[in-house]
C-alpha cells in the first residue's frame, strides 16, 4: 500500500453491493463504474472476495485528541466531569499532544470505516497536520470558550482567526475550517455573534453544542429568558452550515426552528447515555420539521471509542427505547445519518456509493460471523457488525486501509503513548506543587 496518494485508479473486484456481486472502478478519486462490467486497467487492484461494500462514514461531532483521555474519567455528571477532571488535565495539553492524539483518533476511525469527521478542540493547526498525514477528510474548529470574559473573548477570536487562515493556507480540499462556539453556557452572546458573523464572512461552517442537558436549558432560560436554541438564533448561529451536537433537550418550537434554518442535528447517543443527560434527541420531530440528521461519537472520554458502527446501533436502539417505537430510526436511516447525511452536514459530497460520487468506500469482511447469514447487509452493518468487521477503506479514492493494514500504525501508537505519558507527568507535577 502506498503511503502517499497521487490519484491512483483502483479496481475492487467481486464485492456485494445491495445484494449484487459486482466490481467497482475508481478513477480520479471518484466512482467511475459499479457493476459486473466495471474493470479495465488500474494502479491498485483489490480482491473483494464477496466483501460487503458500504459508503464511507462521517463522524459529525468529536473532540478527536481526547483519545489521550480515554478512560481517564468515567461515570460522572457532565459539569463535574468537565470542571473537576477534563478541563484540569486539558490545561496541560501541548500542540504535540494534539498532533499524536488526533492521529490516534484518525487511526481508530479509519480502522472502523470512518473517512471524515467534524472536530472541535485545542491546537487545531496540529490536528490539521495529523489529518493531512492520515489522508482523511475533516472540518476543524477551534473550541471557542470566552466564559463571558472580554479579555478571554479577544484571545479566542485571535485563535479562531489564526486557525482559519492556517487551514486555508494548506490548500487541502479535504480539510475545511469552521468556527466552534462551544455552548451557550461557556460563550457570551457577543462571542456567539462574532462566531456567526465570522463564519458568514469566511463562508465556513459552524460547530456548536446545543441542549445537551436539562440544566443547560433551565439555566439559560433563568439567565436570558429564552431557550438555548433561541439564544443561538438571535446571535445568527442557526444556518444550513451549522452542526448542532446533541440536541437532546429540544421542545417542538426548537425543532421547528432548527428545521426552518436547515440546521444539521448531530445525534450522539453513546455520549448522551454515558453522561446520563436524561433525554434522547427528538429524532422523529426533527425529521418531521426538516432538520438535517447526522451522527457523532463525541470525544473518546465520553464514549469511549470512535466506532460509528456502534453509534448507528445505539442510535437506532435508543430512539426505539426512549420514544417507545419499534419502527423509529430503521437501519437504512441510521446508515444514511452516518454516511451521506454526515458528509452533507460538513459540506462534503461523499458518503454515497454511486457513480460520480467521491470514492468513500468501506469493505466489511463477508466471512465475519456478524455477516453470517447475509440476508440484509444494511441490517448487519447497523445491528450486528461493529468497526472490527472493516477490512478496507478508501477516502476520495485513496486507500487508507487494505486487508486490515494501515501504513504507519505502529508509529502512531508509539507517538500517542509518549504524548499520554508526558501529559500525565505535567498534570501530576502541577497537582503536587
Ligand atoms: N478554547 C477552549 C477549548 C474548548 S475545546 C472543546 C471542549 O469541549 C469539551 N467537551 C468534551 N465533551 C463535551 C460535551 O459532551 N459537552 C460539552 N463539552 C464537551 C472538551 O473537553 C473541550 O474542553 C477552552 O479554552 O477550553
Ligand atoms: Zn462535544
From TrEMBL:
Pathway(s) the chain acts in: Amino-acid biosynthesis; S-adenosyl-L-methionine biosynthesis
Keyword terms: Hydrolase, Metal-binding, Zinc
Enzyme Commission number(s) from the entry: 3.5.4.41, 3.5.4.31, 3.5.4.4, 3.5.4.28
Catalytic reaction(s) noted: S-methyl-5'-thioadenosine + H2O + H(+) = S-methyl-5'-thioinosine + NH4(+); 5'-deoxyadenosine + H2O + H(+) = 5'-deoxyinosine + NH4(+); adenosine + H2O + H(+) = inosine + NH4(+); S-adenosyl-L-homocysteine + H2O + H(+) = S-inosyl-L-homocysteine + NH4(+)
One Pfam family from the record: Amidohydro_1
UniProt domain Amidohydrolase-related: residue ranges: 53-399
Residues annotated as binding Zn(2+): 61, 63, 209, 298
GO molecular function list: 5'-deoxyadenosine deaminase activity; 5'-methylthioadenosine deaminase activity; adenosine deaminase activity; metal ion binding; S-adenosylhomocysteine deaminase activity
Binding-site positions, substrate: 90, 182, 212, 298
Cofactor, how bound (note): Binds 1 zinc ion per subunit.
Cofactor: Zn(2+)
InterPro entries: Amidohydro-rel (IPR006680), Deaminase_MtaD/DadD (IPR023512), Metal-dep_hydrolase_composite (IPR011059), Metal_Hydrolase (IPR032466), MTA/SAH_deaminase (IPR050287)
Superkingdom of origin: Archaea
One GO term of the biological process aspect: S-adenosylmethionine biosynthetic process
Further information: SAH is a product of SAM methyltransferases and is known to be a feedback inhibitor of these enzymes. As a result of this inhibition, organisms have evolved efficient enzymes to metabolize SAH via different pathways. The pathway found in methanogens differs from the canonical pathway, it uses the deamination of S-adenosyl-L-homocysteine to form S-inosyl-L-homocysteine for the regeneration of SAM from S-adenosyl-L-homocysteine. 5'-deoxyadenosine is a radical SAM enzyme reaction product which strongly inhibits radical SAM enzymes.
UniProt similarity note: Belongs to the metallo-dependent hydrolases superfamily. MTA/SAH deaminase family.
The protein's role, per its UniProt record: Catalyzes the deamination of three SAM-derived enzymatic products, namely 5'-deoxyadenosine, S-adenosyl-L-homocysteine, and 5'-methylthioadenosine, to produce the inosine analogs. Can also deaminate adenosine. The preferred substrate for this enzyme is 5'-deoxyadenosine, but all these substrates are efficiently deaminated. Likely functions in a S-adenosyl-L-methionine (SAM) recycling pathway from S-adenosyl-L-homocysteine (SAH) produced from SAM-dependent methylation reactions.
Quaternary organization: Homotetramer.
Protein name from the UniProt record: 5'-deoxyadenosine deaminase
UniProt source species: Methanofollis formosanus
Amino acid at each position: 500500500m502506498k503511503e502517499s496518494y497521487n490519484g491512483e485508479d483502483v479496481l475492487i473486484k467481486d464485492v456485494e453491493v445491495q445484494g449484487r456481486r459486482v466490481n467497482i472502478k475508481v478513477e480520479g478519486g471518484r466512482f467511475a463504474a459499479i457493476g459486473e462490467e466495471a474493470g479495465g486497467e488500474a494502479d491498485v487492484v483489490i480482491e473483494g472476495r464477496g466483501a460487503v461494500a458500504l459508503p464511507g462514514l462521517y463522524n459529525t461531532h468529536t473532540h478527536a485528541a481526547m483519545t489521550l483521555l480515554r478512560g481517564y474519567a468515567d461515570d460522572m455528571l457532565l459539569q463535574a466531569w468537565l470542571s473537576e477532571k477534563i478541563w484540569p488535565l486539558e490545561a496541560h495539553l501541548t500542540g504535540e499532544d494534539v498532533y499524536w492524539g488526533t492521529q490516534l483518533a484518525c487511526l481508530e476511525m479509519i480502522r472502523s470505516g470512518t473517512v471524515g469527521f467534524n472536530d472541535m478542540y485545542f491546537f487545531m493547526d496540529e490536528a490539521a497536520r495529523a489529518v493531512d498525514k492520515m489522508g482523511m477528510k475533516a472540518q476543524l474548529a477551534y473550541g471557542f470558550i470566552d466564559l463571558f470574559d472580554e479579555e478571554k473573548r479577544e484571545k479566542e477570536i485571535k485563535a479562531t482567526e489564526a486557525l482559519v487562515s492556517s487551514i486555508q493556507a494548506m490548500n487541502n480540499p479535504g480539510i475545511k475550517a469552521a468556527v466552534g462556539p462551544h455552548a451557550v453556557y461557556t460563550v457570551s452572546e457577543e462571542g456567539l455573534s462574532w462566531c456567526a458573523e465570522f463564519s458568514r464572512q469566511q463562508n465556513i461552517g459552524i460547530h456548536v453544542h446545543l441542549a445537551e442537558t436539562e440544566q443547560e436549558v433551565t439555566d439559560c432560560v433563568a439567565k436570558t429568558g429564552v431557550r438555548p436554541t433561541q439564544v443561538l438564533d438571535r446571535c445568527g448561529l442557526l444556518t444550513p452550515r451549522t452542526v448542532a451536537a446533541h440536541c437532546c433537550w429540544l421542545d417542538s418550537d426548537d425543532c421547528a426552528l432548527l428545521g426552518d434554518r436547515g440546521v444539521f442535528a448531530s445525534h450522539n447517543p453513546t455520549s448522551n447515555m454515558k453522561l446520563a443527560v436524561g433525554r434522547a434527541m427528538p429524532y422523529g420531530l426533527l425529521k418531521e420539521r426538516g432538520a438535517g440528521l447526522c451522527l457523532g461519537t463525541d470525544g473518546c472520554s465520553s464514549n469511549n471509542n470512535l466506532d460509528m458502527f456502534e453509534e448507528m446501533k445505539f442510535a437506532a436502539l435508543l430512539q426505539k427505547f426512549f420514544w417507545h417505537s419499534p419502527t423509529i430510526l430503521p437501519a437504512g436511516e441510521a446508515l444514511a445519518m452516518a454516511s451521506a447525511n454526515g458528509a452533507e452536514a460538513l459540506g462534503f459530497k461523499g458518503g454515497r456509493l454511486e457513480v460520480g460520487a467521491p470514492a468513500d468506500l468501506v469493505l466489511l469482511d463477508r466471512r465475519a460471523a456478524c455477516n453470517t447469514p447475509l440476508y440484509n447487509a444494511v441490517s448487519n452493518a447497523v445491528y450486528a457488525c461493529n468497526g472490527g468487521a472493516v477490512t478496507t477503506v478508501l477516502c476520495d479514492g485513496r486507500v487508507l486501509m487494505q486487508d486490515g493494514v494501515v501504513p504507519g500504525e505502529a508509529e502512531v501508537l508509539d507517538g500517542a503513548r509518549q504524548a499520554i505519558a508526558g501529559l500525565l507527568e505535567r498534570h501530576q507535577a502541577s497537582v503536587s506543587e
